[in-house]
Every structure is written in C-alpha cells, then in structure tokens.
C-alpha cells in the first residue's frame, strides 16, 4: 500500500508531462491545462494521505524499489523516505503547485505553446518530489539536477527573446557550479562512511570516533556550496533575479516556493552532518546574514515589480540559512513554509498586475490600481504585511523566531538580520504604494482596459492570502505543533526555541517596531510625498550602485566570462586552425598517394597476370633460398 501511494505520488506528474508532450497540442489549451493541474492535485491528495498516516503513527515510511548500484562495499538502493520532513515539503510543493497550475490555465491561455508550458511544470513537480522523498543523496541528486533542467526550460520558455535565453543559460551554468560542490561533498561522504543512505549515514556519523575530521568539514562545506547555488546565496545568487525572465507562474512556483528551498531542505535533511561540522555552520550563518542584507539593499531601489520580489526572495532565503547556521533547523523550516505562502501570493499578484497591464512590469508606470483590481490589491497587501513581520500574520511568527535565534547566538548577525527585515518592510510597501495608490501613471489605452483578473487567477490568490494570514499558527510561541512534529528528526528537544521570557518579548517588540518603521518611511516617501523613482539615466550616487546591483554581474563578466571568451577565441583562431591545417595536410598527403597509386591500375588483364606471375615467382624463390 505504501509503495503504491509513493509511486502514484511520483509518477502522476510524470504521466501528465508525457501526455502533454505527445498529445497536448491536439487536445487543446484548456484540456492540456486541466490535465497538468489534475496530475499535481492528485499528488497533493496523496501527500495529505501520507501526512495523516505519519502524523497518526509518528513513524516514517521507507520504500525500497530495487537495488540500484553496488561498488565494493558501497550499496545504493533506489528508494523513498517518507517522514515528517519530506511529507511537510510535499504538502506545499504539491499544494501550492496545484494552485499555480490552476492560475496558469488563465495566465498562459493566449500562449501558443501552453501545452509545452504545462508539460514543463509537471516535469518540474516530478523532479521536485523525487528530490524531496529520495532515501539517499543519489536519488536527491537526480531530482536536484532535474529541477535545474526544468528551471532552464521555463526561464527561457519565451525563447524568441535572446535576453530570456541568456537568463536561462546563466541560471543553468551557475547552478552547475553549485552542483559540482554537491557532487564532491557526496563523494567525500561516500568514501568516508561507505553509504549515501540517510538513515545509515546518520547512524555512521553518530558512531564515528573522530567527528572533528577536516574531511567531514570539507564535505559539509561542499554540500553547502551546492545549497548556495540552488538557493541563491552569495556568491551564487545573481541568477535568481534574472530568472524573472520566465512567465510569472514560473517565478512563483520555482523561484519563490519550491526549487530555491531545495538547499534548505538538503541542509536540514543532513542536519547530523552539519551539527558535526561547527566551523561550517558558522560559515552558513555568516553567508546567510550577509546575503539577506545585501539582497535587501538592492531591493530598495528596483523598479521592476518582479525584480523587487526576486531580491526579496534572496534576502528571505538568507534569513533561513541564518537559522540553519545556528542549528535551528525547525525555525528555518517554519520560515520556508510561511514564505512559500506569502511569496507565492506576491508573485502571482504581480502576475495579475502584469496581466492586467498587458506585460508592463515597471512600477513607475503603474499606480492607482487599488480600485480597478481590488482582489489583487487586498491579497498582496495581506502578503506584504506577512513578509514585513506585522502581528499577527504568518511572517511575524517565523521571522521573529529567526531573529530571536540570532540574538541568542550572535549579536552582530542579529543586527544584520534586523536591518534586513526593516528594509524588507520598506521595499514591500514601496511596491504597494507605487503599484496601487495615487493616480495611474500608464498609458490611456492601459487605463481604459484596467480590470480585475479572472477567477482562475484570483481564487489561488485568495487561498494563498488566507494561508499567509493564518499559516503562523502551526508554530505559536510556547505551543509549537511544528516543533513537536519535527522533533524525531533532530537531536535537541522540541520547543527549545520557543521559550519566551522578558528578553524574547523585548526582541519581539523591537522587531515589530522595526517593521512599522520601514512601512512608515515608505508611506511618507511614496504616499504622502508622492515620490516616483527617477528614470534610469537620472539615477546617481549610491542609488545607482544599488540599482546596478553593486555591479556584481559586471565584475563576474570581467573576471570569469571575458577571460574564458578570450581563451576560447585563442583556441579557435590559433590552436584549432593549426590542428585543422595538420589534419587537412594529412588528408592531402593521403589523397596524393592514392592519386599516384591509382595510375598503376591500367585495366589491362594481361599486365595484371604478368605481375601476378612475377610476384608468385618472387615468393617461391624467397622460400627456397631461405631453406
């Protein structure tokens, strides 16, 4: 029964992919969208059944399909591990995935390749499920590479635009850099413990005599590099904002709610490895804190509505890694869940705005949409309140948990996280004021056609807004269902991070005041003063540095891309040309020998017989003389 459920969970999206690839175009857009949506919805129902079973029994489910690889004493099975962590991830991957598929039926309806879009989305869900439920690192790696492939396909979905193709290639290549780190980490782990299976590995690490081994720290660091690539942390973060080139449902599904959380999932799954490598945990916390602050500063001045949300995602992921670096895995998971709710809602809401403005993404050309698009406005407002940490929305609980954890472990990183959180509140309400308030700044034609999006777009927005409002209830201070649920996976006692005293209440008050301060500054600047960001050419000073993202892309281009291009041109123009001359020269010599040789072929049978007789005589004479 468990095996059947696991196979239905995994294979239904794959079946949806195959149907849409081979028959989607002939079935029509509506049927193609319905098939893709139903496939993911079925996986969501199965996830609910598995969640109910694991919650009631408190035990995970191990499914082994077959023995896969055996090299010496290293044995790897193709199997699934369905426990508290994987099923929790499945719920929002398939649940939010279903809503985004439903949304996409309307959003992508005018696209000629809609069937291909749903095929790619289904394939992504298949690989993401594989990543989450794999029982060992190799199965995880299959899903890991698969979601990277689907990200490439979906970012460059509108491939007629070369900029979108460039963004897709950038995401693909930068993720491969991180994936090399993940592979090296897997090789080290496999060589040290002769296993890649999670359960066996945990037992081996627990029983290891020397946990201070530099090799184990190196393995943990390499695994974290893989997480940096997939979850967009410094220095491998620049692909994520460019990934906004893909259709907005892609941004919501892959680059807000699911794929970018793969790094957090992997670190949490291997918590016992990272707990044994404290020096690497410190690196994780520092990188997470810096990433959250750097991305937040860049988000302050962006004018593309999706770019603001993209840098917000990078910043929030940084806060999650901040918690992971302190070993507060359940706190990071909590923020993953709440972030999936409000960030998916924000991305889908921005898609509704873009859809209503016929592709316009520049907030300087928006404004006054509150009355024309009330459902989009209210749902995005709720999600903005949640991400800003306003009581008592979901983000208030999860973000405060992270900041409290940081305060108890490292004051400097607590300050960094708090500043990033204040900036988050500022740029999110900057987005809200520029988009929905004051007078409309677009064209008259756009103004004439302003309207609320259809029900297939607004229903997912409403559901996500409700989750963004009440999602924090799963982990209330002093009464955390989530901590109790995840307790079997971690060594420390459940509820440890939820103990509240005077210090914690003070920190909570400081965080709330910080969020309100950010909102208030945005209100004064963009509502009271009716300030509109300047055109690109008029941006100067620090704003220009932030607007151009600290020129990191330009630095990467100068340090890595251009030298590689120059080296490639050198090989093309000199080495390859020289080798080609050698190869073609050998060909010419061969042709000349053949040309001269063919002159011996006169076609005279008498001459051939004469030469044959001479040859036979020469051979016979040689044999007799040799004796």
3D architecture notes:
There is one protein chain. Helix 3 runs antiparallel to helix 10 (about 250-255) and helix 15 packs antiparallel against helix 20. This protein folds into 2 domains: about 160-555, no CATH class; about 555-625, no CATH class. The chain contains 25 helices and 2 strands. Strand 1 (about 60-70) and strand 2 (about 75-80) form a beta hairpin. The protein is mainly alpha-helical. Strands 1-2 form a two-stranded antiparallel sheet. The protein is about 75% helix and about 5% strand.
Write the layout of secondary structure elements.
Elements: H1 2-27, H2 29-57, E1 61-71, E2 74-82, H3 84-107, H4 114-133, H5 137-155, H6 162-193, H7 198-206, H8 214-230, H9 239-242, H10 248-257, H11 262-269, H12 271-275, H13 278-299, H14 305-325, H15 329-356, H16 374-387, H17 394-409, H18 411-436, H19 444-448, H20 455-470, H21 481-486, H22 502-528, H23 541-547, H24 552-597, H25 605-626
Antiparallel strand pairs: 1-2
User: Biggest β-sheet: count, sense, barrel?
Assistant: 2 strands, antiparallel
Whole-number radius of gyration? 30 Å
Q: Roughly what percent helix?
A: over 70%
Query: What does the oligomeric state look like here?
Result: single chain
**Strand percentage:** under 5%
Low-confidence stretches: none
First-to-last CA distance:
84 Å
Number of strands: 2
What sort of overall outline do the alpha carbons produce when their principal axes are compared? Answer: globular
The average pLDDT score comes to: 90
Strand order within the widest sheet?
1-2
Number of domains as seen in the coordinates: 2
Class from secondary-structure proportions: mainly alpha
Number of helices: 25
């Amino acid at each position: 029964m468990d095996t059947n459920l696991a196979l239905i969970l995994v294979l239904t999206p794959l079946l949806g992919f195959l149907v849409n690839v081979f028959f989607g175009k002939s079935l029509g857009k509506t049927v193609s969208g319905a098939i893709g949506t139903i496939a993911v919805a079925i996986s969501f129902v199965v996830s609910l059944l598995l969640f109910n079973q694991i919650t009631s029994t408190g035990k995970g489910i191990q499914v082994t399909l077959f023995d896969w690889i055996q090299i010496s004493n290293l044995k790897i099975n193709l199997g699934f591990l369905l426990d508290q962590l994987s099923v929790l991830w499945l719920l929002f991957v398939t649940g939010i995935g279903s809503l985004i598929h439903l949304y996409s039926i309307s959003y992508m309806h005018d696209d000629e390749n809609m069937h291909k879009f749903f095929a790619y989305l289904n394939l992504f869900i298949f690989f993401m499920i594989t990543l989450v439920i794999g029982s060992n690192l190799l199965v995880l790696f299959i899903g890991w590479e698969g979601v990277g492939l689907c990200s490439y396909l979906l970012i460059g979905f509108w491939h007629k635009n070369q900029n979108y193709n460039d963004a897709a290639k950038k995401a693909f290549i930068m993720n491969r850099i991180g994936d090399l780190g993940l592979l090296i980490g897997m090789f080290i782990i496999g060589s040290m413990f002769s296993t890649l299976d999670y359960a066996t590995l945990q037992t081996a690490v627990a029983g290891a005599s020397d946990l201070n081994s530099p090799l184990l720290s190196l393995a943990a660091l390499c695994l974290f590099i893989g997480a940096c690539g997939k979850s967009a942390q410094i220095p491998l973060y620049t692909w994520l904002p460019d990934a906004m080139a893909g259709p907005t449902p892609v941004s919501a599904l892959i680059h807000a709610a699911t794929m970018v959380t793969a790094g957090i999932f992997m670190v949490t799954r291997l918590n016992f490895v990272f707990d044994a490598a404290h020096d690497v945990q410190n690196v994780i916390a520092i990188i997470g804190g810096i990433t959250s602050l750097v991305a937040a500063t860049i988000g302050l001045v962006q004018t593309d509505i999706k770019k603001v949300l993209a840098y917000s995602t990078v910043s929030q992921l940084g806060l999650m890694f901040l918690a992971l670096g302190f070993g507060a895995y359940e706190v990071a998971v909590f923020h993953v869940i709440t972030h999936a709710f409000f960030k998916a809602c924000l991305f889908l809401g921005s898609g509704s705005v873009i859809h209503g403005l016929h592709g316009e993404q520049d907030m300087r050309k928006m404004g006054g949409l509150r009355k024309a698009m009330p459902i989009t406005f209210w749902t995005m407002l709720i999600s903005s309140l949640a991400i800003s940490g306003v009581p008592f929305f979901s983000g208030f609980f999860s973000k405060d948990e992270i900041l409290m954890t940081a305060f108890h472990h490292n004051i400097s990183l607590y300050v960094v996280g708090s500043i990033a959180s204040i900036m988050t509140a500022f740029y999110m309400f900057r987005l809200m004021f520029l988009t929905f308030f004051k007078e409309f700044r677009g064209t008259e034609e756009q103004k004439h056609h302003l309207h609320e999006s259809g029900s297939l777009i607004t229903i997912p927005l409403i559901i996500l807004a409700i989750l963004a409002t009440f999602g924090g209830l799963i982990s209330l201070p002093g009464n955390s269902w989530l901590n109790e649920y995840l307790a079997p996976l971690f060594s420390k006692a459940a509820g440890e991070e939820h103990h509240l005293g005077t210090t914690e209440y003070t920190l909570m008050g400081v965080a709330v005041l910080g969020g309100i301060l950010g909102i208030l500054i945005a209100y004064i600047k963009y509502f009271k003063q009716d300030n509109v960001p300047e055109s690109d050419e008029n941006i100067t000073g620090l704003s220009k540095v932030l607007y151009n993202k600290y020129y990191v892309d330009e630095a990467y281009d100068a340090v890595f891309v251009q030298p590689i291009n120059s080296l490639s041109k050198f090989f093309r123009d000199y080495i390859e040309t020289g080798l080609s001359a050698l190869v073609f020269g050998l060909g010419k010599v061969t042709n000349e020998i053949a040309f001269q040789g063919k002159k011996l072929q006169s076609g005279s049978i008498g001459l051939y017989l004469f030469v044959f007789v001479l040859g036979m005589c020469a051979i016979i004479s040689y044999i007799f003389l040799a004796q």
